[in-house]
Design a protein that fits this description.
Length: 265
């Protein structure tokens, strides 16, 4: 990636836009990365949707086909996996010395974090739209209409914020690709399979049900599923609130981590 120069008198929004522009240019130059990350959702939707299609006949699915049930889960799984890898860009900057240039420049520390987060959310939004398109081509339908799609995308963005910021914090603390990748794998797999991403809670063992009830992945999946189906969870506002709180805490963690990194150099 290239170094950017931000004028000393530039405002916070200008600084953030410059950081965002740098990361977007880097993403365009390496577009194969976000593109390749869509292969896994295609496999999940096409293969799982066909192999477990008969599950849609079970009463726990509420009469909807399994593909309709699966797509919102794959949508959230895609942003979860992408978000968990967001910190790798900062580690590249640390290794190349770009981060030290950032921290000795007049760029606001919050602009460094927010600019990179905005880039990640733009990519996640594009990936989410592609996943919904793939799901539609595979046979899924979205009775919630445009409003339901917007709700699902909004919840996916909040979930992405949680994991992008957490990944950034881990990257700035560990400064190691191996540590970040290992911790990401340790978190994303249990978060996916101990949730209602692929199976209703009633069909899972009791202990898995208990865990999934407090799993933020379940909160996001249920809101995304409700939005696309046009049946928002009446008693699920605390789940949406929980996701927003987690996003705020994760952003604060990322800001604290970049401050700690700056003091250590």
């Amino acid at each position: 990636m290239t170094t950017i120069v931000v004028p000393i008198r530039a405002g916070w929004f200008s600084q953030t836009s410059q950081v965002l522009r740098r990361w977007l240019i880097a993403a365009i130059r390496q577009v194969w990365g976000p593109a390749m990350s869509l292969i896994q959702p295609v496999i999940w939707i096409v293969l799982f949707g066909q192999v477990f299609q008969s599950l849609g006949a079970l009463p726990q699915f509420g009469g909807a086909g399994y593909i309709d049930y699966l797509v919102p889960g794959i949508l959230m799984m895609t942003v979860l996996y992408s978000g968990a890898w967001a910190g790798t860009g900062f580690i590249d900057d640390i290794d190349s010395g770009v981060m030290d240039q950032y921290l000795t420049s007049p760029v606001a520390r919050s602009a460094i974090i927010t600019g990179q987060l905005a880039q990640q959310l733009v990519i996640n939004l594009a990936q989410s739209l592609v996943v919904l398109g793939i799901g539609w081509l595979a046979g899924a339908r979205y009775p919630g209409g445009v409003a339901g799609v917007l709700i699902a995308l909004g919840v996916a963005t909040i979930l992405a914020t949680v994991f992008c910021c957490a990944s950034t914090a881990v990257a700035l603390t560990s400064r190691s690709q191996i540590a970040l990748i290992s911790l990401s794998q340790l978190i994303v797999l249990p978060a996916t399979f101990l949730s209602t991403t692929m199976m209703p809670a009633d069909l899972m063992p009791q202990w898995v049900q208990d865990v999934s009830r407090w799993n933020p992945m379940t909160w996001a999946v249920e809101w995304g599923r409700g939005g696309l189906a046009g049946t928002l969870p009446a008693d699920g506002w605390w789940q949406l609130g929980g996701l927003v709180v987690l996003a705020g805490l994760a952003f604060a963690w990322a800001m604290r981590s970049i401050g700690a990194y700056q003091r250590s150099i």
